[in-house]
Amino acid sequence: MASAQQEQWGTKLGVILAVAGSAVGLGNFLRFPGQAAANGGGAFLIPYFTALLLLGIPIGWAEWAMGRYGGKKGFHSAPGIMGLMARGSGGRYLGVIGVLIPLGVSFYYVFIEAWTFGYFLKFLTGGLGIDVSAPIADQAATAAGFYNSFTGTVQDGILFTGDSKLTVLSWVTVFAINMYFVFRGLSKGIEKFCSYAMPAMAVLAVIVLIRVLTLGTPDPNLPDQNVVNGLGYMWNPDYSRLTNFQTWLAAAGQIFFSLSVGFGVIINYSSYMKRNDDVALSGLTASATNELFEVGFGGMITLTAAFIFLGVSGTTAAVATGSFGLGFSTLPVVFAHMGGIGNMIGAAWFFMLFLAAITSSLSMYQPAVALIKESLGWAHGKATGAIALLGTIGAILTLWFTQGGAFWSTVDFWVGTYLIFIMAGVQIIYFAWVFGMDRGWKEIHNGASIQIPRVFKFIMKYVAPVYLIIVFVGFTVQNLSASVRASWASTGSRMGMITIGATLLLLLLIVRAGEARWKREGLDLNDTQPAD
Amino acid sequence: MTAAGWVTMIIALTVVWGGVIWCFRKVLQSPQDEKAPPGFGP
Q1: Which CATH number fits domain A2-521: 1.20.1740.10, 1.10.600.10, 1.10.10.60, 3.30.2350.10?
Q2: B-chain residues within 8 Å CB-CB of A16?
Q3: Among residues A17, A95, A111, A398, which is most buried (max CB within 10 A)?
Q4: Has the ipTM of the complex gone over 0.85?
Q5: Neighbouring residues of A230: CB distance < 8 A, sequence distance ≥ 6
C-alpha cells in the first residue's frame, strides 16, 4: 500500500489538464449542440449556465476538496474517501458507485473511442466513398451504411464474424494505448499524455472552426445555406422554451454529464494532490476549459457545418438521430462536400474526437486501479493487469452484443447516466451535511489561490442538493419506466444488466477486503482524527 | 441569424473565452511547485 500512496501529480497544471481532459469528451462536440438546438437554441444557455453555477461548479468543488482530504488520509478510491466523509461503512459501500461508474462506462466508451480512431484512419486514407453528385439521400445512406457496418448495429457478433475487422483492430489499438498510459502511472502516463493532448485538441478544434467559419455560401443555388444562417440555427434564441421543464432538465443533465461531476474521477484525481495544493482555482479552471470546448468549439462547429450543406430540414433530421448519428453519419457527408480538403478536415475532426475520448477514457481506469491497489495491496502493474482483464471482458461483451446498441446503451443509461445523479447527490449531501459545510468551506480554501464568494457556501449546502433532487426526480419520471422495460427487452440489454450486477458485486467484495485491510493497517478509515 | 442570436452568441463566447483566460492567468500567476535541487530527496 505504501507505494500506492506516493503517487502524485507532477505539476499543478498537470492535474487541471487531466481533469479537464476527463471532462472534455465526445459530448462536448456532439451532444451539447444537439441538446441546445432542440431546446431553444441560444435560450438554452440560460438554464445551462444556471446549472453550471448552481450544480456543476459547486459539486465539483466539493468533489475536489473531498478527494484531496482523502489523499491526506491515505485514500485514493471513492469508497475509502466516502467512508471518511460519512464516518462509517455506509459511505464506503455507497462510494463503490464512484468506481462502478467510470469502470462500467469504460467498457463501452473505449468501443466508441475506437469509432473515432477508425473514422480518423478512413478519412486519412480517402474518406468513406460518398459520391457528392448523388442525391443527398443516397449520400446519407452511404454514410449510414458505413456507420452501421462499422459499429455492428445490425447484428450481434457481426464485428467478429463479418468481413470487416477494422472496428476490432481499432478497439485493440486504442485499448492498448489506454493500458500503456495507465500502466505508466499517474504523472508519467496520464498527466504527460494530457499535457500534450489537450493543447493538440485545442489546435485541431481551432483549425476545424476556422474552416467551417470560412465556408461562406458553398452552393450559390442555395444562398440560405450559409455560415451566418448556420450559426443562427444553433444560436437564435427561442425564449418560449424556458417555460418548459424539459429544457431545464436537459440543461442540468448536459452540465452533469459534461463536467464529470459525480463520475468518480475528480475525487480520485484530486486525491493525488499535495495536501496544500489549491483546489478552488483548479476546479474552476478545469470547468472553464470544459466550457470552452463545449460552448466555444462544440457550439460553433458541429451544427453550423451540418446546416451549410444540409439546410434546415437535413440538420433537424440529423439532430433527431442523436449525438452519434450527427457525428458519425451526418458529418462525414458534410466533410465530403468540402472538396479536396474535406478528407483532411474530416481526419482532423475525428482525431480531435479521438483525443477528447482518450483523455476521458484514461481517467476511467484510474479509480479502479486505485481501489485495487489500496484494498488488496497489489502493486501498480498487477492492478493495471487486473483492470486490463476486466476491461477486455467488458469490451468483448460490448463488441459482441452490438445489435441496436442495446448492450452499451443499457450500461450507459444505468451506470453512465442514472448512477451519476445518485453519486453526485451522495457526495454533496455527505460533504455539506455530514462532513459539515463550515469544515468543508475551510477545506476548500486550504491553500486556495482564489477566495470563493460566500454565497456558494449557501448554494452548496441548500441550493445544489435541492436542485439536484428536482432534476433527479424529473429525470426519473421521464425515463425510468421506459428504461426498465428496455433493459430486459433483448439479449444485449439483459447482458448489460448482468454485467453491471457482476461488476458491482466484484467491487463490493474488493471494498470488503479493503475495509479489513485498512483496519489492520490502522488507517483512520472513519475520520476520527484530524487530517493535519 | 437574428440580432438576439448574435447577442446570445457573443455573450456566451465572451463568458467561456474570458473565463478560461482569467483562470489560466491566475493559475500561471500562482506560486508553482518548488523543485527540489538535484541530489535532494530519497
Answers
A1: 1.20.1740.10
A2: 27
A3: A95
A4: yes
A5: A303, A304, A305, A306, A307, A308
